[in-house]
Amino acid sequence: MAGPSDKALNEFLSEAQEIVETFNRNLLDFDNQRSSGQAIDPDLINESFRAVHSLKGLVGLFGLTQTGEMAHALENLLDAIRLGKLDVRPETMDVLFEAVELFGQALAAASTGGDLEPTVVSGYLARLRSARDAAGTVEESDDQFGGYQFPASLLSVLTEYEEHRLRENIKSGAMIYRVSGQFDLMTIDKGIEEIKQRSKPVGEIVTYLPSGDSSDPNMLELQILIASRSPLAALREVLDGADVEVEVEEVPRTTTPAMTAARRAAPPPPVEPAVVTPPPVARDSDVAIGTLRSVSQSVRVDIRKLDALMNAVGELGIVHAGLERLLVELVSKNLSDECRALRHEVRALERKLAELQSGILEVRMVPLRQVFDKLTRVVRKVSRSIGKQIRLEISGGDTELDKLIVEELSDPLMHIIRNAIDHGIESAGERVAAGKPEIGTVSVSALQQGNRVMVIVSDDGRGIDEERIAEVALQRGLVDAADLREMTRRDRLNLMFLPGMSTREEATALSGRGVGLDVVKTNIAHLSGIIDVTSTPGHGTQWTITLPITLAIIQAIIVKVAGRTYAVPLNSVVESLTVEPSEIRTVEGREVVTLRNHTLRLARVADIFGLRAPDTVTPASPDDIMYVIVVGIAQHRLGLVVDELVSQQDIVIKSLGRALSAIRGIAGATELGGQRTVLVLDVPGLVEELVKRGVAKEVAA
Amino acid sequence: MAVRVLLVDDSKTTRAFAAAALEAGGDVEITEAATGIEALKLLPRQQFDLVITDINMPDINGLELIKFTRTHEDYKNTPVLIISTEGRDTDQRRALELGANEYIIKPFEPDQLVAAVRRHLSRY
């Protein structure tokens, strides 16, 4: 096709990305069930197949022939697996997981108009073939349906897969039931979903058969075939009370071979206990929730639309603040009944606004599991490829963060984990000699603390030698000997984040080439996050990333400097303190204070923005208390000196527009009500700037 | 008068692609459905001149949709085209046996789709 528009390309990429994620999730669950010996949910492999099938169609439309070829081969493999024609071995899982990765690469290439390299695809196809050859093929028995004689008209609407599931179920001793009912077209989705939920604990839905001869155009006669090993009464019981009244009957078997006769004599053999507890989800309200949830999964919204919505809520907040002010004035003059009523209404508006705001924030939230799933794959691959056995422990995948942050987190996190596997975890021999378990453990956990989320990566490897780090930093002139002497162990470890640091001369394939921890730090700083590292030689290393849960609406401290008002985003604020002028020392021309045995560099906001002409400076009298806001970006700390702390409130940051975007130290503007527009300080930018000028180096805390 | 097409596919991108191709090819009014169930709900709401559907969809699949239209008094003469990926011989055969008018293999060129629709709807 001719070059797709940007919009079409974006839609393609987002849909494809979602499909790849679904594919990955299903594979992980499948692998899990396989390796733990649980009963395998056939849906998982069918959903994987469907994902690859859809993806193949999509990439074909966008002219990605290489990716299409790969998807095609993969589709065939998955098809054989779901139809029970192929055994699944560890090698099979390897090629399946590799595909997830290649699809990721393909989409990255597609975003700039490219495709996978033919050599990459041909290499992959060769591995896929050998995995397929290694796996045993399973002879599909061609027995007729164990005594069932389905009419040709029924068999003709089954897809090959549905027919296979029908056979498999019958083979494993299930009976086939026909559930039929009249569904109102307006509510058919809900009706079908309810039947699904209710029947799930006792059986598997094989197919839905809509009938074309309904007399009422608003109703649809639907037959559902359910395979189950439970008796008819059990199925009737779970379906009883569903919104749509259904009839349940067993599909009769014909009396043909002896086997069927035997079945008749001794009623259905491998039947589960006669009483089946109704599914716990069978209450009407629960079912409704299930339906809602499945609908919301299919809603995809451009995050920019949510930004616009958020802005509108921000403006509504300003209108509210205006109303509030008028109300106060009014109340001070007279307190009539109308005033009381108005106050009541304004309060109600305030509550609803807060609800609206948290509602929108919630929509932006996605579970960290989206990133964690990818990590599992990388760890699996890396540990296999370098022959180190690694156990990955993941917890807190349900912790939610703003979509934008989750997206941006994946690269830095991946880097840290590769680093841990590559440099942190010792070889098996080394570990045994040190008295550690042979298998190394890397754990990733996430937890929410107020408005922040902490993601902690730790390993039980050899730990990091901070002396070696200090040595390299010194050699490369990144610090001087005097600096080093003042540094604590932790400070020295944090030198790792300086640009130009890499204690290994040659980057290995694992940790990537040319991307150092300084980039990790910068990426996290862009998310207003902080990264910190601690390590115990011989026992392991722990990386802690602290992130705000959203960037869309933030809490800020409102401050005054030289009569002007500024907002400082709270997510970069570590603490605020008062300092007496006498506590301030001057070291090499820079103002510093000592805070809990650390030297904290100060920066006067008034000086940064040139707000006070020298002749207007009032020399600080000894009892003038100064306010210092300690901000932290990555491992840097800086004390911003302001005149007054005004309040703390939620703000929506708005961009200043292109013309003003280059202004140093300002992230945007926000409105505080009463048409007051104030500037929001760009803390990461300010710290960065001061670091470049070399003034924040010694404040590493 | 524009020809009215019901386009059923669970991929939004595929629908957008097919819709763009059809709109460029002639006077057409397209209604999209993302699932077989949605298609069943839309069918009685307005008169469609032609249905285009994918096969692999959750719950109500494309084959069931074809069977439904072929046995329904109101839709049994409405042409149904299948768009699906190749390699599913059995499904392709079944679709045609059930009465689908044509099977178009994904990926397809815009012209192919337009030509197929013209074969079954002379006024498009």
Number of helices of chain B: 5
Instruction: Write down the overall mean pLDDT of chain A.
Output: 79
As a percent range, the share of strand residues of chain A is: 15-25%
C-alpha geometry of chain B: globular
Q: CATH superfamily of chain B, called what?
A: Response regulator
Q: Helical region count of chain A?
A: 22
SS-based structural class of chain B?
A: alpha/beta
Examine the secondary-structure arrangement and name the CATH architecture of the largest domain in chain A.
Answer: 2-Layer Sandwich
Low-confidence stretches of chain A: 255-298, 505-514, 695-701
Q: Which bin fits the share of residues in helices of chain A?
A: 40-55%
Number of domains of chain A: 5
Low-pLDDT runs of chain B: none
Which class of chain B in CATH terms? Alpha Beta
Shape of chain A: globular
Output the structural class of chain A.
alpha+beta
Please report the first level of CATH classification, the CATH class of the largest domain in chain A. Answer: Alpha Beta
The tally of beta strands of chain A, per DSSP, is 22
- CATH homologous superfamily label of the largest domain in chain A: Histidine kinase-like ATPase, C-terminal domain
What share of the residues of chain B lie within helices? 40-55%
Task: Give a nutshell description of this structure.
The complex is a heterodimer of chains A (701) and B (124). Chain A has 701 residues and is of the alpha+beta class.
Description:
The complex is a heterodimer of chains A (701) and B (124). Chain A has 701 residues and is α+β, with helices and mostly antiparallel strands. Chain A folds into 5 domains: 129 residues, Four Helix Bundle (Hemerythrin (Met), subunit A), CATH 1.20.120.160; 146 residues, Histidine kinase CheA-like, P2 response regulator-binding domain (Alpha-Beta Plaits), CATH 3.30.70; 62 residues; 181 residues, Histidine kinase-like ATPase, C-terminal domain (Heat Shock Protein 90, 2-Layer Sandwich); 147 residues, CheA-289, Domain 4 (OB fold (Dihydrolipoamide Acetyltransferase, E2P), Beta Barrel), CATH 2.40.50.180. Chain A is globular. The C terminus of chain A is likely disordered. Chain B has a single domain, classed as Response regulator (Rossmann fold), CATH 3.40.50.2300. The longest helix of chain B has 14 residues. The mean pLDDT of chain B is 88. Classes of the chains: A alpha+beta (701), B alpha/beta (124).
